């Protein structure tokens, strides 16, 4: 006899294999009305991070962050929201990562200081220790933001701590649990929460070659940019603050996969390019990586006009 | 007995505090910053215009303050003539960011130190949000799972507010504030491009056009936030103060106060600011001199020289250094320890009799609570000062938005000189923020940030004198030495940000 939880797990697996639309209506209904007790528990840990991802998660509007952590997931631990603190907080984290508190997903914000473990401590242990323990017990991991996905800003050239993303860290330590990367500095709250909802209602989302949900990261910013017409007509901004295609100022929309041009940010009223600010490629694997690859090409334009 | 308080939650980042407790009193405290990334290292050699983007990633809670400080520093280095719109846009973007941060700090980060979450189980009213929360907590508690009602439970032992209505009202406001902080951030992002991490802020202004629809939208959102500050946030602080009056006398730091002043009133580089800068030592305010700032590192995990001025600073990490207990440096002003933050901002301005709205609010609340203005140096004082800042900033932003010229330029023309240097100072929500940029051969030669929590959570300096938060903790009575909710209330009142402090 198969129990309800096993059934849903199986249905979720099948759904990713066959695509959601092929599911019988009864199975789809069961998936949509998932048992609250089966909601995924998230243990959210921060490494070399700035908390910007967490602050971005609080900007989710519909559903609200409060609804998302009660109705769509269970936020077992998050350093910015948890009432508990100190040793009792680490006891709680440890009870999950040692497998005593039931199944859970690990959500990670921030990079791993691989060559300087002391550069990130949580209580008595380095951050990497928690990752190592969790590798044995977690159902999977969600890398929240560009630092956790690819190393991000702490891994910029010069990188004194040897910062890397968790996918690379787990690959090096021989861990093969499922990992979903949700880059962005910060990620749009929808990208993260809707991935969690996808996990709850449907199962593992389809991923790009970089391990990001195709739902959000399948297209270049440039391809859906409202200023694509300007690009084709060669109407280029040549100074900061000008309208038109921002390519000549250094816009990295052609190199960056994200759905910002259709999703927009902060209540859907704004996004970088609408504010005449070039895309700086914050969701890209090479975001900010090289010193000789600046965000803006003001110098080049000035030299060209001299 | 020795007790480590880390990892301290409901703050930004990785903070531990080593405490010694004798007979129920904290006798020693060491603030331990537990994370290091090395921004100074990876900024070196980069294009200077990368700085206002990279330094925002020091902190995702107050990124706009870093963008502004970096922009000021670069404006000084490039000698830019900033158009009026440019400065106004900076103020509008940064000011709205302050408002969100104050609400987040009080409701999400601090309120659970005082408010009894379990009071929701007694709720008998008809509010749908509260009924939903009640139903959820009931179901969680009945579920038999390992940690029901996380992240709100479990919690530390301590005396919480006993009045059921007060608790339930605060929980309602906890949920409401989550929506209001979004409105403040939406306002910021109208001109900032997105939040967190604005792409539209540059030295010399911002790239977004101040069209009339954007201005109207901004004003409308800030009005809603302002109403919440007056009708909900301030009354909630007064209510907490009524329940915990001892905290007007708990958590005082023992040094001076430093504020760089907030929001220039004109685009002139040396403009007067809405809140005045100054160093408050022994009751007297003096002008700020960046040359008086040095950073000791005998107790910090670096092998670079100690006691350097900001423009000379270097950084070599040394994680295993003997006798070092923190990644945070120990900045001192003319050798003296100072506190920064909302209380410093308000006390520095109030002592000079500068902003009349500040004066009125300080005196009104001091009268209501029957305290002296000097008692703003306390747990409740810091919370109250954030609310006063919020009220004053919101009014300023509403007037400032009207000053935008929809037809005027928003940006200075930027030409980066081959070699230059510049300081940029502003107030992040957590306190005084100083950036310094040195440019050689059109590239960043040196970049240094002296950040609010670097001051507040500083370790001992080379003379062994403790930092502001360390002094605020010593002498505090704790009921349960293992957990020390009293210490947590003090720490939260400083609103520490460790990603900022170490960077």
Explain this structure.
The complex is a heterodimer of chains A (306) and B (503). With 306 residues, chain A is an alpha/beta fold. In chain A, 35% of the residues lie in helices and 11% in strands. Chain B has helices at 39-43, 51-54, 63-78, 84-110, 128-142, 164-192, 212-243, 342-351, 356-369, 379-402, 452-456, 468-473, 485-494, 498-502, and strands at residues 2-4, 15-22, 25-33, 201-202, 205-206, 256-259, 262-264, 273-275, 278-281, 284-286, 293-296, 308-309, 330-333, 338-339, 420-428, 431-440, 443-450. The two termini of chain B are 32 Å apart. In chain B, the strands form six sheets. A four-stranded mixed sheet of chain B has the order 10-9-6-14, covered by helices on one side. In chain B, strands 1-2-3 form a three-stranded antiparallel sheet. Chain B has one domain (2-143, 155-502): Cytochrome-c3 Hydrogenase, chain B (Orthogonal Bundle). The interface between A and B is large, with 91 and 100 residues.
């Amino acid at each position: 006899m198969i129990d309800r939880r096993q059934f849903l797990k199986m249905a979720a697996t099948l759904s990713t294999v066959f695509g959601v639309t092929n599911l019988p209506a009864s199975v789809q209904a069961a998936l949509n009305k998932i048992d609250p007790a089966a909601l995924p528990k998230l243990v959210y840990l921060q490494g070399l991070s700035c908390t910007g991802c967490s602050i971005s998660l609080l900007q989710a509007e519909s559903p609200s962050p409060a609804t998302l952590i009660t109705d769509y997931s269970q936020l077992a631990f998050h350093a910015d929201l948890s009432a508990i603190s100190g040793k009792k907080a680490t006891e709680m984290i440890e009870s999950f990562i040692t497998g005593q508190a039931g199944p859970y997903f690990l959500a990670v914000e921030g990079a791993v200081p691989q060559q300087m473990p002391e550069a990130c401590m949580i209580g008595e242990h380095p951050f990497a220790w928690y990752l190592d323990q969790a590798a044995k017990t977690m159902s999977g991991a969600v890398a929240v933001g560009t630092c956790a996905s690819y190393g991000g800003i702490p891994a910029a050239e010069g990188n004194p701590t040897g910062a890397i993303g968790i996918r690379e860290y787990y690959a090096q330590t021989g861990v093969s649990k499922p990992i979903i990367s949700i880059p962005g500095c910060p990620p749009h709250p929808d990208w993260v929460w809707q991935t969690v909802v996808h996990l709850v209602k449907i199962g593992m989302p389809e991923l790009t070659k970089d391990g990001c949900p195709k739902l959000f990261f399948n297209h270049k910013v440039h391809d859906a940019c409202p200023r694509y017409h300007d690009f084709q007509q060669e109407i280029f901004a040549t100074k900061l603050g000008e309208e038109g295609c921002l390519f000549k100022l250094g816009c990295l929309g052609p190199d960056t996969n994200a759905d910002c041009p259709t999703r927009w940010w902060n209540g859907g009223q704004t996004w970088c390019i609408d504010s005449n600010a070039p895309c700086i490629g914050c969701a890209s694997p090479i975001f900010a990586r090289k010193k000789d690859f600046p965000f803006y090409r003001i110098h080049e334009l000035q030299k060209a006009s001299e | 007995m020795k007790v480590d308080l880390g990892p301290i939650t409901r703050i930004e980042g990785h903070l531990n505090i080593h405490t010694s407790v004798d007979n129920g009193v904290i006798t020693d405290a060491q603030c331990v910053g537990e994370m290091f990334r090395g921004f100074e290292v990876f900024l070196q050699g980069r294009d200077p215009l990368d700085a206002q983007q990279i330094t925002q990633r020091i902190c995702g809670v107050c990124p706009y303050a870093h963008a502004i400080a970096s922009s000021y520093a670069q404006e000084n280095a490039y000698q830019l003539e900033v158009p009026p719109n440019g400065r106004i846009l900076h103020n509008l973007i940064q000011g709205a960011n302050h408002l969100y941060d104050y609400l987040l700090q009080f409701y999400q980060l601090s309120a659970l130190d005082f408010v009894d979450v379990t009071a929701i189980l007694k709720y008998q009213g008809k509010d749908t949000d509260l009924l939903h929360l009640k139903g959820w907590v009931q179901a969680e508690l009945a579920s038999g799972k390992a940690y029901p009602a996380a992240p709100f439970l479990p919690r530390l032992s301590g005396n919480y507010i006993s009045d059921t209505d007060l608790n339930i009202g605060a929980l309602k406001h906890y949920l409401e504030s989550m929506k209001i902080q979004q409105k403040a951030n939406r306002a910021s992002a109208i001109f900032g491009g997105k939040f967190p991490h604005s792409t539209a802020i540059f030295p010399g202004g911002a790239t977004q056009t101040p069209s009339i629809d954007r201005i109207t939208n901004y004003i409308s959102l800030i009005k809603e936030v302002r109403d919440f500050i007056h009708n909900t946030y301030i009354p909630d602080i007064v209510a907490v103060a009524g329940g915990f009056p001892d905290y007007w006398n708990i958590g005082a730091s023992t040094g001076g106060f430093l504020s760089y002043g907030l929001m220039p009133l004109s685009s002139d580089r040396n403009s007067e600011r809405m809140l005045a800068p100054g160093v408050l030592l022994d009751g007297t305010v003096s002008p700020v001199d960046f040359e008086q700032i040095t950073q000791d590192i005998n107790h910090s995990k670096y092998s670079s020289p100690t006691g350097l001025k900001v423009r000379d600073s270097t950084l070599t990490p040394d994680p295993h250094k003997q006798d070092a207990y923190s990644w945070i440096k120990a900045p001192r002003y003319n050798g003296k320890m100072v506190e920064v933050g909302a209380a410093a901002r308000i006390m520095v301005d109030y002592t000079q009799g500068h902003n009349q709205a500040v004066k009125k609010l300080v005196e009104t609340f001091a009268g209501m609570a029957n305290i002296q203005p000097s008692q703003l140096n306390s747990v409740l004082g810091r919370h109250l000062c954030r609310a006063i800042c919020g009220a004053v900033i919101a009014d300023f932003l509403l007037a400032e938005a009207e000053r935008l010229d929809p037809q005027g330029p928003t940006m200075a023309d930027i030409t980066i000189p081959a070699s230059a240097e510049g300081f940029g100072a502003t107030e992040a929500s957590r306190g005084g923020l100083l950036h310094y940029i040195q440019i050689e051969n059109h590239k960043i030669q040196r970049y240094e940030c002296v950040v609010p929590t670097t001051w507040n959570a500083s370790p001992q300096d080379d003379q062994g004198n403790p930092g502001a938060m360390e002094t605020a903790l010593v002498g505090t009575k704790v009921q349960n030495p293992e957990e020390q909710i009293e210490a947590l209330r003090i720490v939260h009142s400083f609103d520490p940000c460790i990603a900022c402090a170490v960077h």
